[in-house]
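FIELD: query
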Amino acid sequence: MINRSMIQSAATMGQLQQKLDIIGNNMANSQTTGYKSTGADFSSLLVQQLNNQSNGQAEAGRLTPDGIRVGTGAKLGSTRVDISRGSLKETDRALDAALLEENQLFVLNVSDQSGGSETQFTRSGHFYLNPLGNNQVTLTNADGHAVLGEDGNPIMIEDTFDGISIADDGSLLLQRNGTQEVEGKLQVVEASRPHLLEAAGGSRFRIPEGSGEAGLIEELEAGNIKLQGGALEQSNVDIGAQMTEMMTAQRAYQLNAQSISTGDQMMGLVNQLRS
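FIELD: result
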């Protein structure tokens, strides 16, 4: 039984360390634009039934169940992303935009090292213009990934303009020769089940492998898109809540470590008695 308790504690400590890593990552990104906190849920590992009653006659009139159930520890069952809206910070920068509605996301085309690409999503509206040549520029995020327009293609515009801004409906407003033109519009979608999205790093999210967009991502009508230009959404990490979770996880880790130490001491005592 002592060995079983030590195995339980060791298995649980490894999973608690993963939770502490998640909490540490949340706290480290508390000032990252558009970052969304990640939570962790635990579940029990297999449970073994130990029956120690071999005399059937002794079971007559018994009120308590025979034997005991011994677990083998806990595991990190799942992680969940909280994409609820964070506070807004006004920057007065022309290419900054913040989404005002819950669960709405900008759409990016992210290239990988193998030459392929993947559609990912973000709440961070910190955009830039990158030159393409031939007097054209494309709209990208801070990491250089292309921002998709409402037609599903990267937004490319002629660089012969005097000024640019983002309207409340996601339209790109360009000033040319004293007139204002609409040239492109940001694609904004809604996550119907945001807890199923997978963090992809860089304040971006992806659809988990094997899951289709159907039921997870929905198109939005133009009237349902609400932005605030010249502003950025801050991280939604609650430092107080993260500190509380960290202390709870640390206490559980210490308890399991003490269980291993106690088990080792008891085994040493038994060995001394045998000798």
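FIELD: remark
Helices lie at 2-28, 239-274.
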